[in-house]
């Protein structure tokens, strides 16, 4: 079995957000989607899609990506098939906010694995429905101004009210601005990564680990 170490990077995001995960090359894309959701910290409340290669900017990303397969959906497509002769696929989550993830093969080796592994990471996942990359940048800027002693008003106040509700904006600031790589590394390693189904061919059926 070929084992792939993947570097998953949230494209154009500042502060940077990335994860390194290890999966079998024949993991089905439908299961890779679940792994990516857990590893990144998303809530799986929006549509998603995979494309082969890399896109060329936020305004055209969904229209310039080559389909990963001629099959109608991702349920019967493995990561190996999606990669083809390349080493990069793109994963887009939330077709409104368009969170684009560059999924690149960092290393490949022969071995066995019964589950996905999280190898490392940096950066807290943006909140759901915060307006994509531009909205996240504005949110981080607003939280930094709040931390410096400025009272939020106008757009900042509305954005914080929408995302925090009755909660404390300082809690959100700590989550997004005080990122502790060591602490998050421990959290990632103990994350409840789902069991994986891998494709074994038509005669062998599906193995569930």
UniProtKB/TrEMBL annotation:
<dbReference type="InterPro" id="IPR024047">
    <property type="entry name" value="MM3350-like_sf"/>
</dbReference>
<feature type="domain" description="Plasmid pRiA4b Orf3-like">
    <location>
        <begin position="3"/>
        <end position="151"/>
    </location>
</feature>
<protein>
    <recommendedName>
        <fullName>Plasmid pRiA4b Orf3-like domain-containing protein</fullName>
    </recommendedName>
</protein>
<dbReference type="Pfam" id="PF07929">
    <property type="entry name" value="PRiA4_ORF3"/>
</dbReference>
<dbReference type="InterPro" id="IPR012912">
    <property type="entry name" value="Plasmid_pRiA4b_Orf3-like"/>
</dbReference>
């Amino acid at each position: 079995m070929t084992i792939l170490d993947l570097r998953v990077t949230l494209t154009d995001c500042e502060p940077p957000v990335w994860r390194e995960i290890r999966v079998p090359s024949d993991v089905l894309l439908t299961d890779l989607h679940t792994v990516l959701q857990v590893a990144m910290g998303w809530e799986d409340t929006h549509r998603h899609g995979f494309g082969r290669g890399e896109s060329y900017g936020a305004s055209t990303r969904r229209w310039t990506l080559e389909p990963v397969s001629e099959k109608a959906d991702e349920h019967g497509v493995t990561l190996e098939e999606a990669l083809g002769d390349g080493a990069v696929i793109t994963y887009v989550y939330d077709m409104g906010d368009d969170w684009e993830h560059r999924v690149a093969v960092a290393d490949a080796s022969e071995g066995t694995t019964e589950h996905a592994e999280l190898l490392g990471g940096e950066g807290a996942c943006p909140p759901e429905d915060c307006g994509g990359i531009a909205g996240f940048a504005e949110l981080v800027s607003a939280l930094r101004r709040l931390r410096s002693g400025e009272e939020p008003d106008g757009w900042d106040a509305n954005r914080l009210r929408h995302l925090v509700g009755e909660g404390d904006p300082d809690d959100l600031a700590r989550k997004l601005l005080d990122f502790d790589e060591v602490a998050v590394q421990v959290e990632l390693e103990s994350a409840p990564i789902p069991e994986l189904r891998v494709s074994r061919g038509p005669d062998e059926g599906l193995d569930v680990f």
